[in-house]
Amino acid sequence: MPMSVPRFKSDAAYSVLNTEWNGLSSFGKLLYKSGEITPVLVPYDSLGLGKMNGTLIVVGPDVDFSQREIEQVRTFLEGGGTLILADDFGTGNELLEGLGLPQRFSKKPVTGLTYLKNYEFPVTREITDDALSTGVNYLVMSRPAVVLNAQNPAVYTSNASMLNGEYGAFPLMDVVSYGKGRVILISDPDIFTNALFPQNEPFLRNLIGSLPKKTFYVDEAHHADFNPYSTGTIVIRRAVNRELVFYYVLFIAALAFFIESGLFGLLLDKLFALLGRFFREERQGLDEIISRLEESGLDGDKLKKILQEIETGSKLGGGHGR
User: Fold this and answer.
1) Is there a single domain that holds both residue 175 and residue 224?
2) Under a CB-based contact definition with an 8 Å cutoff, are residues 240 and 248 in contact?
3) Which residues form the DUF4350 domain (predicted)?
4) Residues 265, 195 share a domain
């Protein structure tokens, strides 16, 4: 069954359909194991996002958001949805401005003295939210921005960080209430990529676990170079009902057992025996009728010939084109 559902791949950066180092396929698998995941391939107003509920995940957008899309996000949040916006130097600020939020992603990266490979991969242990820090040794980033005007920071850079000539710890993640929903801002989309996923998986698991509803809409429409190029499986949980799959597999297993056990062959033998008996009884009934007609003075051979011609259709057009 899964083989019959379409699959797409892409080489766009920050695409959940991209299996390369700069893609989010590992994060996508994590979402898939946690709930239902749907890539968003069309503008939000075409999708009808405002009527949906769950979590909209926007990572590394570089395509402008239309006013209609922003209104859809606003309705989505006011209805209780969650927005995860992970960006650094893309178009995330455009969406924040449209929603009327004061937060912004800095236009320059923050640098630090604590890093993994080199200064372009700073690390931090400054996670203030206990639900996010459980089992997390550190968080690895790649040239991250910071969240300016943060209201409720949950993650900071290390104290040995610098931005625009100032030293200290700067917010990397901020959680903002919006209507009945909330907005989660993360100033580095690279923490979600396949390249950094092994180091950041515990944090990402905690992040997913903190979400109220495990229905995920992953934005692909705002990646300028998004180009699906092959087919195979996508959104299995959305396309196939889990309970129906269970009963389907159970039915196939029962059918296989029925056939392999020999019961199927016995059933066929019984069926053919019953059909043979039926036709024998029908033939015996005809022979008895012919015998009675012969006793009345009719020619039995001619009656049998007439019956044979009726069965073969030789006098009903089958042999004469009528």
Assistant:
1) yes
2) no
3) 18-207
4) no
Could you read off the pLDDT of 13-62 as tens digits, one per residue? 999 999 999 999 999 999 999 999 999 999 999 999 999 999 999 999 99
| Contact criterion met (CB below 8 Å) for 110 and 163 | yes
pTM listed for this prediction? 0.70
Q: Where are the alpha helices (DSSP H) in 210-312?
A: 236-239, 242-260, 263-295, 300-312
> 207 and 175 in one domain?
yes
Q: Residue 208 corresponds to which tokens in the numbers above? A: 């997913």
- CA–CA dist 132, 139 (Å, integer): 11
Residues 76 and 224 in one domain: yes
Query: DSSP code of 191?
Result: G
Amino acid 313: pLDDT: 57
Rounded to 10 deg, the angle between the 263-295 and 300-312 helix axes is: 140
- Residues whose CB falls within 8 Å of the CB of residue 299, separated by 6 or more in sequence, listed in order: none
**Residue 22 · residue 195 · CB < 8 Å:** yes
DSSP 170: -
Strand spans (E) along 60-133:
82-86, 104-105, 111-112, 123-124
Distance of CA 180 to the CA centre of its chain: 26
Domain boundary among 240, 257, 281: 240
How far is 259 from 251, CA to CA, in rounded Å? 12
Domain that holds residue 224: 2-240
- Do 183 and 236 lie in a common domain? yes
d(CA 318, CA 257): 46
Total count of domains within the chain: 2
Q: Looking at residue 180, which CATH number applies to its domain? A: 3.40.50
What is d(CA 212, CA 72) in angstroms, rounded to the nearest whole number? 20
Quickly state the pLDDT bin for 231 (edges 50, 70, 90).
very low
DSSP H/E element including 77: helix 67-78
Task: For strands 215-219 and 36-40, give the pairing.
Answer: parallel
Task: Specify the length of the chain in residues.
Answer: 322
Pair 16, 67 in one domain: yes
**How far apart are the C-alpha atoms of 141 and 157, rounded to whole Å?**
10
